[in-house]
Specification:
seven-stranded antiparallel β-sheet, 473 residues, 4 domains, transport, RND_pump_MFP, conserved putative lor/sdh protein from methanococcus maripaludis s2 fold, alpha+beta, CzcB_C, BSH_CusB
Length: 473
């Protein structure tokens, strides 16, 4: 063996000397020193020495570079020794199972070797591989990859369901002014579409022969001195005026003055905005013709369309925050009043009615809004951060931190999501620590180790099959 090493060293000395890459003064003395060290004590003899910085410089004997660093010895197994080898006692006492590819490729070797790029294969020691399905990382790798863990705890999941919608009028706050008998519009107040009016504010004057006749009859009844049945008859005459929708203040004025008016002053029945004005001076209004339409917008509806998948999370009474696109920095708060019992066939959404206070009339009908429905449940549930879940689409898993650098992949069943957390319904216990960051790197390490283990187990079987085939031949 020593003779083989000597011949190899002499051959390499000649080839490198011809290439002009030697930085030495006396090649023969260095080779002689190598031969002497090989014959004394049976120690390993370096074939040559290479530059510690990786430059294409070699030497047949020990030497230093221009920075004073020692050249690294290269032995017959093609493994360069480190500049100052300081193997730990723990690593020295552990058994090397095999060597794996430094680039993560599914390639192992029972002996030290290099890949095509000149990188040394990485040893895998006994104890680094676990058959219980866990993955073990060194403390240095955990620190470099930024692995962080957090225990699973019980907390309330706050889920916000977002949905678009529009502002609509409250159907209960819309009034229509229409005549119940043939009438003529004598005069109209300075009121137009969009005008804000107060309850009792004059809108128009109308003349109606039916109203005038009923008013005269009522006055004749209440001013009559006839005794007997006058009260009953007068009550019926007044009811006729009410049936003709004569305003109450007009009837009260007639009772006070005992004068039947020729024209009737019609007033606004409520506070609101004039949405429609069809009355024109001098026009004839037939029974049922709408002359004014007034709406109170101090309270409006937000009709939002909630996706069908979120229907199970919403309920009547839940708080809703509505933001109008016309007022980006302002929020309006209301509650769900009605969930309509029908799903839109085309959009697969369900309409939800939210009642909103609108004291300054900022929200207008048909205005676009965005609603955030708070579906928070007061009951706490076991939850983890949403970054902890490894989701393949068909199953969900987390990495449980077992301590001492060991991580166990575990499949879980999840529930609601919200506020950066996910409900865990099965697979974890309260207080178990799960990895919240760098879990994809650990998962990649787990897949790599599984692949390497499969190749390592398949290699001996393939070797035994080859021997069996050779013996058969």
């Amino acid at each position: 063996m020593n003779t083989l090493r000597l011949l190899t060293a002499l051959a390499l000395t000649g080839s490198l000397a011809l290439g002009g890459s030697w930085l030495m003064t006396d090649g023969r003395s260095s080779v002689h020193a190598a031969v002497v060290s090989a014959t004394e004590g049976g120690a390993r003899t370096p074939l040559y020495f290479r530059d510690p910085g990786g430059a294409p410089l070699w030497s047949a004997g020990p030497r230093k570079d221009d920075r004073g660093r020692d050249y690294l010895p290269v032995y017959d197994d093609d493994q360069a020794a480190p500049a100052e080898p300081k193997p730990s006692q723990a690593a020295a006492s552990r058994k090397i199972l095999y060597y794996r590819n430094p680039m993560g490729l599914p390639d192992t070797s029972p002996v030290p070797k290099k890949d095509p790029m000149g990188m040394n294969y990485i040893p895998v020691y006994e104890g680094d591989d676990f058959d219980d399905g866990t993955v073990k990382l060194s403390p240095g790798k955990i620190q470099r990859t930024g692995v962080k863990s957090e225990p699973a705890e019980r907390r309330s999941i706050r889920v916000l369901v977002k949905a678009p919608g529009t502002i609509q009028l409250d159907e209960r706050r819309v009034s229509v002014i229409a005549m119940r008998a043939e009438s003529f519009v004598q005069k109209i107040a300075d009121v137009t579409t969009g005008t804000r009016v107060k309850a009792g504010q004059p809108l128009m004057e109308i003349y109606s022969s039916a109203v005038a006749s009923a008013a005269a009859e009522y006055l004749a009844t209440i001013t009559s001195k006839t005794v007997g049945g006058v009260e009953v008859y007068g009550r019926g005459s007044r009811q006729r005026l009410v049936n003709l929708d004569v305003p109450e203040q007009v009837i009260a004025e007639m009772e006070k003055t005992r004068v039947a008016p020729v024209t009737i002053h019609w007033a606004a029945p409520r506070d609101g905005i004039v949405l429609e004005r069809n009355a024109i001076e001098g026009m004839r209004a037939n029974p049922g013709d709408v002359l004014f339409r007034i709406a109170d917008i101090s309270l409006v509806w937000a009709l939002v369309d909630v996706a069908e998948r979120d229907l199970g999370n919403i309920a009547v009474g839940q708080s809703v925050t509505v933001r109008a696109r016309s007022f980006p920095g302002r929020a309006f708060t209301g509650r769900i009043a009605v969930i309509y019992p029908q799903v839109n066939r085309e959009t697969r959404t369900v309409r939800v009615r939210v009642e909103l206070a609108n004291p300054d009339a900022a929200l207008l009908p048909d205005m676009y809004v965005d609603a955030d429905i708070d579906t928070a449940d007061g009951a706490p549930v076991l939850a983890i951060q949403d970054s902890s879940v490894l989701d393949t689409g068909t199953r969900q898993a987390v990495l449980v931190d077992k301590g001492d650098g060991r991580f166990e992949p575990r499949e879980v069943k999840l529930g609601r999501r919200g506020g950066g957390y996910i409900e865990v319904r099965d697979g974890l216990a309260d207080g178990e620590a799960v990895v919240t960051s760098a879990n994809f790197l650990i998962d990649a390490e787990s897949n790599l180790k599984s692949a390497l283990k499969g190749f390592a187990e398949a290699a001996p079987q393939a070797s035994d099959a080859g021997h069996a085939t050779g013996e058969h031949k």
